[in-house]
Amino acid sequence: MPDLIAFLTDYGTRDGFAAVCHGVAATRAPSARVLDLTHDVPPQDVRHGSVVLARVARHLPPAVYVAVVDPGVGTTRRGLALRAGTSVLVGPDNGLLPPAADVLGGVSDAYALTNTTLWLPAVDRTFHGRDVFMPVGAFLAAGGALGEVGDQVAAGSLVRLPAPGRTRTATSLTCEVTYVDHYGNVQLAGDEDDLVVLRDWAAQGWVDIEVTGPGPARAGEPGEPGAPGGVRDRARVGRAFGDVPAGELLAYLDSDRRLALAVNEGSAAARLRVRGGAVITVAAPTEA
What we know:
The protein is of the alpha+beta class. It is built from six helices and 15 strands. It has helices spanning 17-28, 46-57, 98-103, 128-141, 192-201, 268-272; strands at residues 4-9, 33-38, 64-68, 79-84, 87-92, 107-112, 152-153, 166-168, 172-180, 186-188, 207-213, 232-237, 249-253, 259-263, 279-283. Helix 1 (17-28) packs parallel to helix 4 (128-141).
């Protein structure tokens, strides 16, 4: 089992929650390394966390991933440990883990965390990252067998997040916002094929942009909470931020090879007033 613990949460760094989990890892698996992937996932934003986890998993060596974005903590939702390729992912059964597992080769074994002897002696209903997930992750990173964490479950029983919405017609593409990054770049549920179509539509130099749904307000994510839909704009189609002048909106393919919107030296999320879950329609221009 890998001795690298790759750690992702929405805990932030102000309150010491992540540091406490580091302490548990150091106590239970003193020879293991802990790599902080991020603790800045917007609070309770499972989809955002799943995107980051899958993005990072493509580039890491074999690891024990401990991922905690867990608005259902203390409820009947399961804790899981999943074998995927040469790595293991530990966290809640809420859709956070499967996208990264898919990147790592798919789930080959899945276990519910029912072996309570591996947990901390006193389990708080609001801090399973400290009391359940990190102790199990540390057990595995210290050489423990995956089959000892609990009962085996069917891979098909895992909770998966709904596929983000995407509809393309002859003249428009309507996509859900799947992710907003630190810079305010807006990732959409579109791909390279969609960008090729946008380039055809942009014969006049731009495509029309309309926000048709605002998405939920989430603390810590760029954009304006509760902003209404109906924002209209135009974007040029390019390959890099410098393809457009400063302050101009760009449609491009991001480093995840997903369709995205950005403002050169600015924030597309703030300009369009959107967050994750918003709906954006990109269309062939209707006027010269």
